[in-house]
Each structure stands twice: as C-alpha cells, then as structure tokens.
Amino acid sequence: MSDVISYSTSGPVAILRIQNPPVNALSQAVRQGLSEAMDRAEADVEIKAVLIVGEGRAFIAGADITEFGKPPMEPNLPDLCTRIEASPLVVIASMHGVTLGGGLEVALGAHYRIAQPTARVGLPEVHLGLLPGAGGTQRLPRLTGAEKAIEAVTSGRQIKADEAREMGIIDKIEEGDPQEVGVAYAMDLISSGAPRRAISEMAAPSSIDWDATYDGVMKKGRGQISGGAGVRAVQAASELSFADGMAAERKLFTEMLASDQSKGMIHAFFNERAVSNLPELKGVAPRALQSIGVIGGGTMGAGIATAALLAQMEVVLIETGEAQAAAARGRIEGSLSGALKRGKISQSQHDALVTSALTVAVNYDSLSTVDLVIEAVFEDMAVKKEVFGKLDAVCKPGAILASNTSYLDVDEIAAATSRPADVIGLHFFSPAHIMKLLEVVVADKTAIDVVATGFELGKRLGKISVRAGVCDGFIGNRILAHYRTAADHMVLDGASPYQIDRALTDFGFAMGPFAVADLAGLDIGWMTRKRKAAGRHPDERVPTYIDKLCEEGHFGRKTGEGYYLYEAGSHASVPNPKIPVLIADEQAALEITPRDFSDEEIVTRYMCAMVNEAAKVVEEGIARRPADVDMVLLFGYGFPRFRGGPLKWADLQGLDKVLANIERFAQEDAWFWKPSALLEQLVTSGRSFDDLNRAQAK
Ligand code: 3HC
Ligand code: NAI
Fold it and tell me: Which residue numbers delimit the 3-hydroxyacyl-CoA dehydrogenase NAD binding domain (predicted)?
C-alpha cells in the first residue's frame, strides 16, 4: 500500500506504523499513507481503534521542512489532523523519542496519547520563523489553557513526558515497546468503552491580556515576528469558533512561511547541519582523541579545558608558573561550578572532573601521552613558535598540534615544527565552553586525517565546526575587522557610536559593535592597529580617537570605562561623555564636517561592508561555501538567526541592490569599498549565493 506507512492489525486495533527515516517527517507520502490507512481501518468492521506509532528514533519530528517553499501537495497537514480527529474509531498516538511540530499536531488530532518516560514533545516552529500550522495553536490551549500553550509555542522548547502529562498533553506514560504499550492501552480503552475524545470539541481557552502578552513576546524576540504571530493564533482559539480559529492560524502560518525571517531560519536549520559535512572527509578516520593538552590557562585556555572536561575528555593544562597554574585551575573550577549550578553536570561528575580528569602542570613533559594539544598562549608569533618548538620535542608521534590563534599565520606556526602535517588551527570563541562556533583552520600542509580529527573534536564538544583557510583573521575575525571599520568610518563622518549600536540591535544583533568592543577589551583593537600600522595603505581611514582612551588605561568593561561607563558589579552602562569630545577633536583635525545618518543608512553600510568582505572570503576559498560564512556569523558573532546570515540576507535583499550600494559607497572611498569580484559575477549572471551553496552540495 504505502512505502512509508505499514498497516497491520492486532485484534480490533489497526496499527499505522510510520517508517520514514531518519525522523519520520510528515512528507506528502506519509500524509497520504496515513490518510489512506485511516480509510482502510474505518472500512473494516472488525476494527474499533487505531494506533499511530513511529519506527526508529522518533514518533514524528514534524512537517517535512524540505517541502517548505515548494508548491503544496495534498493532503495538507491541517486536513489530515482534522480527518484523524473526525474518525468514528478511537484513535491513539503512542509516542517515543521526539514528537515535534506537525508530529505533535497529529498526536493532538488523536483522541488519546500514551508516551515513553523518555519521550519529549514540543512545538518548535518558532525556531523556523513559523508557528504551528496544523491546529497546534487551536488544540493545545484547549488542553493546557492559553498561558502554557503560548509558552510552548513561543519558546519552542522540548517538554519532557512528566511535565507534558501534568500539562494534560499526555494521558499515560508507560515504558516498553511503543507499539506494544500502545496496543495494550487501546485494548483497555476499548474494553472500558472509552469514548472518542476530540480536542476541537473541548471548551475554548479563557481570555488573558493578549496585547500585553504579545508585547512581551515581541520584546523578547528582538525583532523576530513569529512568536507574536503564535500569540495571535492562540488568541483566535479563545475568541473564535474552532473552524474560524483554524482558518486564522492557517493565514498567520502562510504569512510567516512567506516571510524572509522563516527563509533565514530554515537556511540556518539546514546549514548548521551541513557545514561540517565536508566531501573530502568522507571515509577519512579521525585520529585517537581521548586526552588533550592545553597550553595557557587564561581566558581561552581555561574555557577550552572546561569544554573538553564537560565532554568527558582528560585534560593536561600547562602554565608558565605555579601562580598562573593556580589561577588557571581556579578559572576552570569556577566554570565547572557554573555548569553544576545550571544542572549540566551532577555533583559527583563535577568532583571527578576536578580531581582526576584535570591535571594542571608547569612542565611540558606531562604532554608526552596526549592525543591533541591546543595552544592558547599570548597572541605573539615569537611566543607561539617557541611553544610549538617545545611541543614538537615532547609530544608523541601522531599527536596533533593545534593553535587557537585569532589572526596569526598557521603555516608559519607549522613551520616551527618538524611535523607541519600534524599542525592545524582550532579557533574557539570566548567563552569557549559556551560559544558554539569552532573554526577549523586548515593550513597548507595539514594532513586530511588531522582535519577530520578537528571536526571530530568539534562534534564531541557540541560545536558547529566550520572549515576555514589561512588568512589574517580566518573567516570570522577577518569579516569582523571589515564591518567594524565601516562602523568606525560612520563615526568619523558623524554617526554616534550609540546610534550605531542601537540601530544594529534593532536590526537583531545581540549587541552593537561598540558595546562588543568594550566587552572584548579595547586593548585588543589598539594592539591590532599598532601591529598593522606599518603595512597600512595610504588611503586607509583609521580613527585614532579611541586610542587616547586606551592610553589613559581605559579598556572597556574590564576597567569600567570605554565607549560606555560601567558601574562595578552591575551590567548597566551609560554612554561615556568623553567619547563625543574625542570624536569631535578628531573630526576637527581631519577637517570633517559631521553629517546625520539615518538608522537605515547605518544598517545598509554595515551590512554591505560585511557582505562584500564575506564574498571575498568565499571568492578566495577561505570559506568553502557562502553558507559557511553565514554559520560563522550566526554562531560566533551574534548575527540574528532570523536573518540567516549575511549572505542569505544579501540574497533576500537582491544582490544587484547590494552591489549598487557598494558601488555608490566606492565613489567616496574606492579603497575600502572595492567590490568583490564574486559578487559582481553573481550579479552579472543573475545567480545568488544560495545557488553556489546548492552547486557545492551536489
Ligand atoms: N523535516 C525534514 N528533515 C528533517 C526534519 C524535518 N522536520 N527534522 C530533521 N530532519 C533531518 C535533518 O535535516 C537531518 O538531515 P541530514 O542527516 O541530512 O543532515 C536528519 O533529519 C537528522 O536530524 P538531526 O541531525 O538534527 O538529528 P538529531 O537526532 O540531532 O535531532 C530532531 C533530531 C530533534 C528531530 C531535530 O532534527 C529537529 O529539531 N528537527 C526539526 C524539528 C522541527 O522543527 N519540527 C517542526 C517542523 S515545522 C512544522 O512541523 C510545521 C507544522 O506546524 C505545519
Ligand atoms: P590570556 O592572556 O587570557 O591568556 C594567555 C595565557 O597563556 C596566560 O595565562 C599566560 O600565562 C599563558 N602563557 C603565556 N605564555 C605561555 C607559555 N609559553 N606556556 C604556557 N602558558 C603560557 O589570553 P587569551 O585571551 O586566552 O588568548 C589566548 C589565545 O587565544 C591568543 O592567541 C588569542 O588571540 C586567542 N583567542 C582569544 C580570544 C578571546 O576572546 N580572548 C578568542 C579566540 C582566540
């Protein structure tokens, strides 16, 4: 009958078993198969109940996301859920693994729900820029009330079985084979004469303060609109008949599906998975990866060690002296206590990590047995070369030697060893045990199994790993330097750092560039400017007003003063009154007459600078695909997920429009705004960055 739905019977129970690996997404074939199997069960006079169950690791993970954006195919999911609910037979869903989105909507179309104790349910559509579109916003609040339904719809979180039962979503929890416990439950229901129980016939949820709830959700979403649409859909469940509520939900769902935000988020969903699938790594076995060494226990080294410990790896950390070693241990123990408090690890796991899995030493000999070493010492080529020379001498043959450098040349570091094939860059982001991004920097001579091991490490640490080539700043920091410079230029020309920060947080960034600079430490940029001063192009515009603040010893948040003033012990900040004065002095010295900028112009210039440099990074092969750049910005730089990444944003704007802006800005500053050749080619040939992504995926 159907390839993806198997039909069998057990006495008076028809069993509809979904077999659509890997996660039983509700493809057209699944929807049609379920609908036909319902017809078949209803046509059989012996059948009294229908059990829907999933094969493999999940009941149903939701609608098939690959079908979004394609012409709709019958039967559609809302109709299927309504058709299941309208059955004269008693319908039961037996859930295991995850039951998400459209999967939960199918289960809510059933009359009874049984689940494994480990099952989780949820409506994660908000993470795709959507809301539930097959009755989830209409049926769920009839079981849970409006507030709990709104929380589920707007957070998209996975709800554990126990909580779902308390909320009224699950009727019974029973451990065992999902089909067996489902059939037994169906038999009980039949023998007790349990009635059909259609949620659509239950009372509508009571009213709440809809506008205040909507405003709260929109504020939390920082520009993302689908959460608010979810609130309005639940409001419709309360205020309209079930049928009209379904129509209202459908209208909102269709609007969200057509939005750029859902396109951005769906792009993120697929590419955060695709980014570490490198064709050249197929069939390449990674090297052993049981124990790791970390050199330097400062901000990054301590974070990397914590991440490795939390992933159950043994760590040997080397510092320069006893005091530094004690400080490093203190930092790591602090982070592990944080993980304990947040429930990430148990007390006994915490104690084992601190006492036996972590060794802190001052002697490199302790590294003789580790599988991989990550160097995180000062950002200074001479220091790094010395460290790599020592590592070369003590590490066992085949051990991987990695650097966490932010900008330095990994080829040059590799050349300081007798085994450049074993050297790689592993660029983490601060705080390293929390930030999801890992750039795997492949140097000229890096062996392919060393690359595979870099990706394997990323996987074990729960990171999104992206391949990067060697250049100043790799993918992320190179692009960051460029769009930061665009912001600096706007300041010189008259926009205030505070307007820029606000315009960009309104756009959806977690923080504006000047607040970020304060957080990272203004000394970093100051040192970089000094390092690059010698090789500077004569046309390069580099503001120096902020260096004056650094010369006075103010480095941003850590010293209490930067672009903003920070009160000790508080996250609150206010603009620093010294900054406008310093800017005005520099403008006067450069004979610049400041002008006004609209927020829109700020965003356009910032984004165009980002896109132009990102395109060059792809053009030069530093990033493998445009989507790789997008994932770097999303997971390392606070780029709003609902915009998909800079190159997805550019596609959605229209590349011709983006290029026209860059060419217009180039008339003022031809050196900074030189258009990317790749961008020009795409515009000429009428193609998009996504076309390049697709071509690479083939
Ligand atoms: N549609 C299509 N493909 C899906 C899918 C879906 N709903 N969910 C997962 N997949 C694919 C993934 O892309 C991945 O493919 P790949 O192997 O080619 O990369 C594969 O299934 C396995 O997924 P994961 O690697 O993510 O496996 P995990 O075990 O780590 O996670 C999961 C499983 C929790 C189900 C996770 O994949 C997930 O969160 N999926 C999305 C769930 C979701 O958003 N559902 C709502 C869809 S929208 C909807 O239902 C609209 C409705 O209201 C009308
Ligand atoms: P940090 O100054 O906090 O820590 C450096 C540590 O290395 C110090 O504790 C120092 O005692 C130790 N050290 C110096 N020389 C050593 C040696 N020869 N042997 C053993 N230990 C030694 O610096 P941070 O911020 O942790 O940076 C480290 C590296 O990570 C740099 O290359 C930096 O560019 C890079 N990085 C930094 C990021 C950040 O946000 N801070 C982000 C990503 C990379």
Answer: 292-468
